[in-house]
Design brief:
- The chain is of the alpha+beta class and about 300 residues long.
- Helices cover about 45% and strands about 10% of the residues.
- The protein has two domains: about 140 residues, no CATH class; about 150 residues, Aminopeptidase, CATH 3.40.630.120.
- The chain has a six-stranded mixed sheet with strand order 1-2-3-4-6-5.
- α4 packs parallel to α7.
- The longest helix is centred in the N-terminal third of the chain and has 22 residues.
- It is globular and about 60 Å long.
Length: about 300
């Protein structure tokens, strides 16, 4: 029986390509589709999870993950998570249309599914989607790709909200994310993204005031300025932000995965072709660590 909520097996490849899915993953997704069709229990769980995700569209701050234990780590489970997002996509697009969001914004945002499938392959894992929890933000209407940067609707809580209040701002903020493989992080590209965000959220989410943007990233670690030129894109990106709380615990895997595609393997075997690659590796080999640092700026 064909799984409800998904295109049939003939129409599925076209739906996958519309979400930026690499050709290398199409057959794996078709196999997962066939598995759903022949397994009533799995199909029932899929439908239940889809209904839960549809109900979360438009919300802010709900747990971003899928229900615990779904799918249950059996063969093809990583592709089942990707298929769930494929089934969710028409509901997301309908939500976007109701808000007047242009189709090209929907396309750029939802195509992150394909990018993450490609990243999984680059990092040497089996085919499939290895971080579906993150992508539920895109498909719930909580995060949008606007040019070089991604903007996530967010309401700060705890110490972060206190820091925002001390600076004279409310708890609503746009959390920035900097995806890899979308070109240089140039000041011009960032400024275009910020300009788009100002108009976009005022127009499409007018009841949520977003006077600030924040970011929590290893890209804001001030130690990078010890290795990179003062006029480098990363250092200029750092200068945009005022500090938001102290640095977090060491998270060396973050820059390794972002820059090299993997956090596994000996440091001495990693490429040293760019200033950033050399900075990341040399700092770690000297016994240092990289940290996620928070920052904010007024929009």
């Amino acid at each position: 029986m064909e799984p409800k909520g998904l295109p049939d097996s003939e129409a599925l490849p076209e739906a996958l390509l519309a979400l930026g899915v690499p050709f290398e993953d199409v057959n794996g997704l078709l196999a997962a589709h066939r598995r759903l069709a022949r397994d009533p229990g799995l199909r029932g769980g899929f439908g239940e999870e889809l209904r839960a995700q549809v109900a979360a569209i438009g919300t802010v701050g709900r747990p971003s993950g899928l229900r615990g234990g779904w799918p249950a780590g059996s063969d093809g489970s990583d592709y089942l998570s990707a298929l769930l997002l494929v089934a969710l996509a028409p509901h997301t697009r309908a939500y976007h249309r109701a808000l007047g969001i242009r189709p090209e914004v929907s396309q750029a945002t939802l195509a992150d599914l394909g990018r993450h499938l490609a990243l999984g392959r680059r990092r040497g894992g089996p085919g499939g989607l290895h971080n579906p929890a993150w992508l539920t933000l895109h498909f719930r209407g909580e995060l949008y790709q606007l040019g070089r940067l991604q903007f996530q609707r967010k309401r700060l809580t705890g110490p972060d909200a206190e820091a925002a209040a001390a600076a004279g701002f409310g708890p609503w903020t746009l959390e920035l994310h900097v995806p890899a493989h979308r070109g240089p992080l140039s000041p011009e590209a960032c400024e275009r993204s910020f300009a788009r965000a100002r108009g976009f959220f005022a127009r499409h989410h007018p009841t949520e005031p977003y006077p600030t943007a924040c970011v929590f990233s290893w890209l804001l670690d001030p130690q990078l300025a010890d290795y990179l030129p003062a006029d480098s894109n990363i250092v200029r990106f750092q200068r945009r932000f005022a500090p938001l709380g102290p640095p977090g615990e060491p998270e060396d895997d973050n820059p390794l995965r972002y820059v090299f595609g993997t956090a596994d393997g000996p440091l001495e075997e990693l490429p040293r072709d760019t200033v950033l690659q050399r900075a990341i590796v040399d700092h770690l080999r000297a016994g240092g660590h990289w940290h996620v640092v928070g920052g904010w700026l007024p929009l």
